[in-house]
Specification:
Elements (H helix, E strand, L loop, with lengths): L6 E2 L1 H8 L3 H22 L1 H12 L3 H29 L1 H19 L5 H15 L2 H9 L7 H30 L1 H8 L1 H8 L8 H6 L3 H15 L7 E2 L9 H15 L5 H12 L5 H36 L4 H5 L2 H12 L1 H15 L1 H16 L8 H29 L2 H29 L6 H20 L21
Parallel strand pairs: 1-2
Helix pairs in contact: 1-12, 2-7, 2-8, 2-10, 3-4, 3-15, 4-5, 4-6, 4-21, 5-6, 5-9, 5-10, 7-20, 8-9, 8-17, 8-18, 13-14, 14-21, 15-17, 15-20, 15-21, 15-22, 17-20, 18-19, 18-20, 19-20, 19-22, 20-21
Pfam families: Sugar_tr (PF00083)
Keywords: Membrane, Transmembrane, Transmembrane helix, Transport
Protein name: Major facilitator superfamily (MFS) profile domain-containing protein
Length: 487
């Protein structure tokens, strides 16, 4: 293996250079991508209620503004996953940043309802790349305390939600929803501006046999961290221990990825075959449901916050809907519940590497279920905000753990595609939740929506029990070894 007579693997290289300035740069860029997604999604809590009286929309038309964004994310999550696994993580970032920033800015100038729906759908397509930022950052992090660093990364989502709530509080009452849409697109523009300064994933490069490029990136990382790479040369740690049937699937993937003219559809079919293979099918189906349920519950609680805030004032002292939108209590409630994600992140960081991913998720789901339960019946404003604060704290934390678990359980060749498909399935939950939280929750009625969210959280907890793998403290895998037994 070279002049030195031996080599080192990517995981050994990452452990040698440790976590330093190199990873901080990666963290900052990937975190910026998550801030952009969080802000674009959080603004849905404010834009719909503001546009409804201005354009005379029905409750269903208002909810459709959120639904089309999730529909776009469904398409984008799958598409960017395949693109990132086929052509590299950075190619996905570039395309997503262009679409998101352009459509986001144009949304501020939408002349009518239909144009706004189309543009918000395109914004959703771009935002569908958010999960690739997670996989990309994960592939730079050494094994020790990987869970804690992934929670730190997830903090950027919370920062984005708090920034959007603060921005809406400042902008909406005076300048209106168009300014909010335009300013919320700024983080996506910044990701486009700094695109050329970030490296490709060395783990992705290794799976493509581009070891020289991967080594160059690792050498730059070692220099930034003021560390040394191990002696020897970078080698691939791929080991093929598959069964004969699984070898056929693996060979199909390797062959298709090596051909210069391989189509995305061929890559997609091969990846889906792997995701539904004997080893992964149980995990894949359960993750699909968990992403659906978490997205449904998380965004449902966000939309319920604004809907119940408006409904509270309507039910207690009926006023014009447009006047309620200017009521500071709406922004205060959304801002307070956005802060709930901070203690949720702290809890996740504390227990994730101690008790494992599965038990962490169970704790979050049980606590979220209990805290949302009192809202089945009407509560006063203080109690409503308090229970929503607690429920969002734990449901958001469970979502974070799921988003950490999924990239860890899939090998590098399937990581972006596997998480992308799960994220796409999750966006179906996002498409449905506005119809529940906005459509069914309007008019002072909240019992049925809360019951539906409670049932979803309960089923999520049961799904976690059935997950076959625990990823705490385990190396990321590059190979697709289908002979490994379920734990």
């Amino acid at each position: 293996m070279g002049d030195e007579g031996f080599g080192y693997t990517l995981d050994e290289a990452l452990s040698a250079i440790g976590f330093g300035r190199f990873q901080v740069i990666v963290l900052a860029y990937s975190g910026l991508g998550w801030v952009a997604e969080a802000m674009e999604m959080m603004l849905l809590s404010f834009v719909g209620p503001a546009i409804q009286p201005e354009w005379g929309l029905s409750s269903n038309e208002e909810s459709l503004i959120s639904t089309v964004a999730f529909a776009g994310m469904l398409v984008g999550a799958y598409s960017w996953g395949v693109i990132s696994d086929t052509f590299g993580r950075k190619k996905g970032f570039l395309g997503a940043a262009i679409i998101t920033s352009l459509a986001g800015v144009l949304s501020a100038f939408a002349p009518n309802y239909i144009t706004l729906l189309i543009l918000r759908c395109f914004v959703g397509v771009g935002l569908g790349c958010g999960h690739v930022f997670t996989s990309w950052f994960l592939e730079f992090v050494p094994i020790p305390n990987r869970g804690a660093w992934m929670v730190v990364f997830s903090t950027f989502w919370t920062v984005g939600t708090i920034m959007e709530a603060s921005l809406a509080w400042w902008i909406m009452p005076t300048y209106g929803w168009r300014w909010l849409l335009g300013l919320s697109a700024v983080p996506s523009l910044v990701t486009l501006l700094f695109y050329g300064l970030v490296p490709e994933s060395p783990r992705y490069l290794c799976t493509r046999g581009r070891l020289a490029e991967a080594r160059h990136i690792l050498e730059n990382g070692a220099a930034l961290n003021q560390k040394q790479l191990p002696d020897g040369v970078l080698v691939s740690d791929h080991v093929n221990t598959s069964t004969s049937e699984d070898d056929s699937l693996e060979s199909t993937m390797l062959l298709s990825s090596m051909r210069s003219k391989t189509s995305i559809s061929q890559k997609s079919f091969s990846s889906i075959s792997m995701l539904l293979s004997t080893k992964f099918i149980r995990t894949t189906l359960l993750l699909w449901f968990l992403y659906f349920a978490n997205t449904f519950s998380y965004y449902g609680i966000i939309l319920l916050t604004s809907q119940l805030s408006v409904a509270q004032s309507e039910c207690d002292s009926p006023t014009l809907h447009s006047e309620n939108i200017k009521d500071p209590s709406l922004y205060v409630n959304v801002f307070i519940t956005s802060l709930a994600e901070l203690p949720g992140l702290g809890l996740a960081a504390f227990i994730l590497d101690r008790v494992g991913r599965k038990i962490s998720m169970e704790i979050m789901f049980v606590a979220g279920f209990v805290l949302l339960l009192p809202l089945i019946v009407h509560q006063n404003e203080v109690m409503t905000t308090g229970f929503l604060f607690g429920a969002r704290m734990f449901v958001s934390a469970s979502f974070i753990v799921v988003c950490i678990y999924a990239p860890e359980v899939y090998p590098t060749k399937l990581r972006a595609t596997g998480v992308g498909i799960a994220t796409a399935i999750g966006r179906i939950g996002g498409m449905v939740c506005p119809l529940i939280a906005v459509g069914m929750g309007s008019g002072c009625h909240q019992t049925l929506p809360v019951i539906l969210f409670e049932v979803t959280i309960l089923l999520s907890g049961l799904s976690v029990v059935c997950l076959p793998f625990e990823t705490k403290g385990k190396e990321l895998t590059d190979t697709i070894d289908l002979s490994v037994q379920v734990e």
